[in-house]
Amino acid sequence: MDESISGNRMKNYLLIAVMMGVFFIVVIAFSSDTVNAEAIIADHIAAANFETIPDEYINVVHENYHIYYGHTSHGSQIMSGLYTLEEENASYNPPFFHEVGDDLGHNGDVSWEPDVRAYLDSTPECNMVMMSWCGGCSDNTEEGINSYLNIFNQLELDYPDVTFVYMTGHLDGTGVNGNLYARNNQIRAYCNSNDKVLFDFADIESWDPDGNYYPDDTDNCNWCIEWCNSHQCPSCSCAHSQCFNCYLKGKAWWWMMARVSGWNGTGGDDNIPPIVTITKPERALYFSEIGAVPL
After folding, report:
1. For residue 146, what are the domain limits?
2. What's the rounded Cα separation, in Å, for the pair 205 and 195?
């Protein structure tokens, strides 16, 4: 009788242990899947949804981020858009950017990587890295783009507390049959499949606010000229392009940042993260090929 009771108890202990093991496996799996549960794609739809960003997230973004941004002239379009939005409404005051006069290069060139690592190692408060293309996506190869994607992914693994923002290359007039279109789609497919954060430079340039598609346009954004002839548009300096192009990129950037900060993307959100004010150096001047740009 005692042996039977002891055996039953042992079976119960084993059953409980198995159930607890299954529970912890499920919890761990769920947690790993929800760290980055879906890709965040800042495209023309993001720009169109700019007005839906809850006000609370604007201040969260301003206070909680220190951003390393490697770019040359085309990449400065995002900054021009941000400053134009800030001129319209002082609430859209960008967080601190450490701007570096470098971009993603050509044909698998990853010479920018050591500088990114050095800055992250020396600046623990930096919690986001952005790197943009100039013309290097247009003449790249599948292998070259894979080099870029692999390096960015490795950086994410090595610096898990830093958000890395992937980007597509700007339009170049070659359309849907051109190499740029294929390379941009390669980047998009990777980001969608691997739950990355993507700033879709080319997509923002390809659509007007009425939903008309211009895949054959260039970085000049010719449709922007026609649009602004019949609509009220802001005025600003926008490298290689029209101010409205920069303006839309600024809007898409704020949408992206609110999503990265935890916004669900569909309106109000009660789970607003706390503000953690990051010590920010004074703004400087970054001298690029297009002149002095305030940081």
Report:
1. 39-294
2. 23
